[in-house]
Amino acid sequence: MNKIRVTTLNRSYEMLIKRGISDKITSVLSESFNKINKIFFITNNKIFDIHGEKIIKKIERCYDVRMLVLRDGEEYKSSTTLTNIYEFFIKNQAHRDDIVIAFGGGVIGDTAGFAASTFNRGLILVQYPTTIISQVDSSIGGKVAINFKGIKNIVGCFYQPHLIICDPDLLNTLEEKEIINGLGEIIKYGLVFDHKIIEAVNKIINENPGSEERLKNMIKDKRFDEVIFRCSKIKSGIVEKDEFDNGIRNYLNFGHTIGHAIEKVIGFKNISHGQAVSLGILCAIDLSISLGFIEDSFKKELLELYGALKLPVKIYSKNVDDIFEAIRFDKKITEGKTKFIVLKKLNEAVIFNDIDETIIKNSIIKNIE
Ligand SMILES: NC(=O)c1ccc[n+]([C@@H]2O[C@H](COP(=O)([O-])OP(=O)(O)OC[C@H]3O[C@@H](n4cnc5c(N)ncnc54)[C@H](O)[C@@H]3O)[C@@H](O)[C@H]2O)c1
Q1: What integer best gives the mean pLDDT of the chain?
Q2: What pLDDT is attached to residue 334?
């Protein structure tokens, strides 16, 4: 088992990473907590059917479990869902020494996490992530939130979990589009922080290059656990140094400035966040090339990896100006500064607060179909 200790201002907690750890869920809980009262298990209908029911049955044998099954989808990361969770807590008399298990992807982790952080001034929170994004990113670091009035993550807070349980086996049932969604984040970690991540992904994927099932085979491969571990270790290290997102946590936004703008222009329904970030990463690489930091050959190699991982390589929108405007709009709501993170070289990133408009537009044009 890989264990990562995350030490923050208010809490020090462990992330346990082990393929198949869900089989031993009751002993994991009993070893992690001295005393367990009620357990509030929150998930969505899709994950409940695939994994949740089996896991709850195990926990129920030892503990008093109250279950809430929400509906699947980003649109349910809402104030209505939050109210439903609070009502569920009230009905079941949730106390501060009760445990909330958020079992699902980032949507469940963020929503149930926010409810747990605010109800009765904070319940015990266990993040139990089931997607790549949630295992390597959203479950770690305490950002919990809901969307409100169409604005993503606008109502939220920092609330570190008390434990993270990470079982890479749960990823085996992800649809391919969700695997692709998570791979952009993994590539980001590899480019900005740890090239061994890219090497490992390259190695696994190139062992069955042509196979239709290559992405599913990759996440089933035991060596992929090391990829998850390395990414989680990076995220937790950054959170320890910059818990409240005032400094180096910004580096996690590599590819996100242009990625968010692409997402907005193409439409949230037409492109996944991970795909938009992958395209944003390509633009950030072109920015790095234009600024004279890295060579063209770097991008060529990256594009080969993108192809193998079925990541998008072209932006399906001719509208550079709209993408640029979307970046400018973001700038307005981030106090006039657009942060561009570029690579000086592999695993060495640098933040620029403003870059010449022509250079930015060219980096987008180069990646347009
Ligand atoms: N808190 C943070 O720091 C942070 C960081 C990144 C993203 N996020 C948030 O996370 C959310 C995105 O997370 P996500 O990509 O995990 O999306 P998600 O939670 O919507 O999950 C994606 C889809 O996969 C399904 N699913 C989950 N686990 C599965 C499994 N094991 N097998 C089969 N299907 C499964 C879900 O039901 C859903 O349909 C966004 O709301 C984003 O804002 C938060």
Answers
A1: 94
A2: 55
Q: Convert the pLDDT of each residue in 9-36 to its tens digit.
A: 989 999 999 999 999 999 999 999 999 9
pLDDT for the residue numbered 278: 96
Q: Which of 247, 221, 207, 258 is nearest to 351 (CA)?
A: 247
Residues having CB within 6 Å of any atom of ligand 1: 44, 46-47, 50-51, 72, 74, 77, 104-108, 110, 130-131, 133-134, 137-138, 141, 143, 152-153, 170-171, 173-174, 178, 181
Distance 106 CA to ligand 1 centre (A): 4
CA torsion sign, 329 to 333 to 338 to 341? negative
Within 10 A of 274 (CB to CB), how many other CB atoms are there? 25
Q: How many residues does the chain have?
A: 369
Residues 133 and 274: beta-carbon distance below 8 Å:
yes
Pocket test for ligand 1, best of 43, 55, 110, 111 (most atoms within 8 A of CB): 110
Alpha carbon of 296 to ligand 1 centroid (Å): 34
Q: Is the CB of residue 330 less than 8 Å from the CB of residue 262?
A: no
Both structure tokens of 348: 């060495």
Fold of domain 176-365: Dehydroquinate synthase-like, alpha domain (1.20.1090)
User: Which residue, 255, 277, 236, 274, is CA-closest to 343?
Assistant: 255
Largest Cα span, the chain: 63
Digit-coded pLDDT (tens) for 264-302: 899 888 899 999 999 999 999 999 999 999 999 999 999
- Three state DSSP letters for 125-188: EEEEECCHHHHHHHCCCCEEEEEECCEEEEEEEECCCCEEEECHHHHHHCCHHHHHHHHHHHHH
Task: Report domain extents, the chain.
Answer: 2-173, 176-365
- pTM exceeds 0.85: yes
Q: How far apart are CA 347 and CA 344, in angstroms?
A: 8
CATH topology of domain 2-173: Rossmann fold (3.40.50)
